[in-house]
Structure formats: C-alpha cells, structure tokens
Amino acid sequence: MVSAVRTVRTVLGDIDPADLGTCDAHDHLFLTSPQLPGHELDSPTSATQELAAFRDAGGESLIQWTPHGMGRRAEDLPELSRTSDVRIVAATGLHQAAHYTPELLSRLRADGLADLFVREVTEGIADTGVRAGLIKVAGGFHGLDAHARWTMEAAAEAHHATGAPIAVHLELGTGALDVLDLLCGELNVPPGRLILGHLNRSPDLAIHHQAAEAGAYLAFDGPSRANHATDWRMPEAVQALAEAGFTEQLLLGGDTTTSGARAVNGGPGLPYLLRRVRPRLELALGGDVVGRMLKENPARAFAVEWEAEWAVEWA
Description:
Elements (H helix, E strand, L loop, with lengths): L3 E7 L2 E3 L7 E5 L16 H13 L4 E4 L12 H8 L2 E3 L1 E3 L8 H10 L1 H10 L11 E5 L7 H17 L3 E4 L6 H11 L7 E4 L7 H10 L2 E5 L6 H4 L2 H10 L6 E4 L18 H14 L1 H8 L1 H6 L2 E4 L8
Parallel strand pairs: 3-4, 4-5, 6-7, 7-8, 8-9, 9-10, 10-11
Antiparallel strand pairs: 1-2, 1-12
Helix pairs in contact: 4-5, 9-10, 10-11
C-alpha cells in the first residue's frame, strides 16, 4: 500500500495545511499577457515590497494563480518566500486562449497538456525545482468554448493523476454552473477539489447558492480598482452564503493583476485584503467567521494527500 501525506505544496516544499495561516487565496506576484500591455507584473523588487507590506498587515501565505506561459517567474518565488516569510503556492494550468500565441498553443497540443500539468505538480516547473500546488484554468463569458473544454479536460486528467486542486477563473464571475457540469459532472472531479474564482464580479446570489450546494469552494477575489463596482455587493453575497450554511466553503483573495494596482504604485495591492476587506466583512459576519475564511478554509481547499514519493520537505 502506498502511504499518503496530507500537505499544501508551497514553493519551498510541502507543509502542514495548518501552517498556511492567514491566506490570500488568489493573487499574483508576477503576471504578463498581451491582453495587459504596459501593465505587467514582472518586477521582483516590486513583488518583494508588496509581500513585505502584506506580511506587515498580518498575511502569512499567498496562492499565486498565474499559470503556465504568463510570466509566473517560478524561479524567483522561493527566494521571495524566504525573504518575506510568506508561504507561496505556485500554479500550473492554462488561461484563456487570448493570453497566448497560436504557436505556443499548437506546441502544447502536440506535447500533451495534461502531461505538462502532471509534470509541473509532481516533478517541478522546468529548470526551477518549484512544484505547483494547484491547476488553474479559465471559463468564458457565460459559457465554455473549445479552448476552455480542452484545458479543463487536461486539468481533470491531471487532478485524477495527482490530487491537486483545480482553480477556475470565471470570466466576469459567470459560467459557474457550466464549469460544474463539465468538471464535476462529465469529468468526475470531486466538487470539494474545485475553487471557483471571481464570484464577486457577478453577484447573483442564486447562482452562488447553487455552486456552494454542489460542494465547490467559492472565492471572492479582486477587491481592486478594476472591480470596485462590485465591492459593495460582496459583503451581502458572502453573508447570504454564510447564513445558508456554506461558511466553510468561502475563500478570500486580492487578485492583483496590474502594476498600477500594487500598493507600491499607489494602488490597493496585497495589503488591501487584510487592511480594508477583512474589517468590512467582519462588520457583516463577525471576526470568527472571517477568520475561518482566511485560515481554516484555504488550509482545506489547497491541501492534498500526495503519494509519499511526491512529498517534499520544507526547505
């Protein structure tokens, strides 16, 4: 019998889930895309400053959802984690087709996308020694195109091979039920291994309730200038889910995606989640509930029972 070790896979090795502490469940230290020209997150110096500010605000861990081919700079993440004393989890996966060149997508089809995801989880991201702790994919606006289905099928295959959780970018917060139908219905991914992101961008309380009832984790992520129009609805949406009994499935994140949104450049940045979002939610829900959303819930959502030979000690 192969033994298993229940851990969260960070860029410095596998840790006890309880050691995540206060967690930003969806953010980006590095991200580049042709969709965001001139706004790249590509400065290690700026990332260092953001992490220091996040740590000063009480942050202890951060889940970077930047997937393959979008400038995730995995080679820089271990030193950033050591310097800041913030646990960092890296992602494999693939975003929407618009973020990539046709040449890269053609090569990934030829090489095998699921194989890439499995390799980055179990062996490491090429030439970095960093193993991914989650698989990030993306849906479309109120639906799933052929690219989304391809990436989600590969993610499901990689999940079944490794147990790694799947995190899903919902375009403008839409399409949650389509994602559940595909990943959990057709592809047999347990809903408790699925994290649905950006639900604050479409504050449809009925859809939120259905997604939570299915068993998925719901991430409210993106309290930034890009999404300020929905910020005032987030407490209402989160409170409705908590009162319906879904507190243990709720996650919070910042989703900083542009250089201008960083605190060092005058934006909300990584600290905003703990400086402003946390106290606002505490007014609606109380400190104990919000504390579970920031600590206990991410510890469950991102924990995996790895096979013993895949487990890596904290370095």
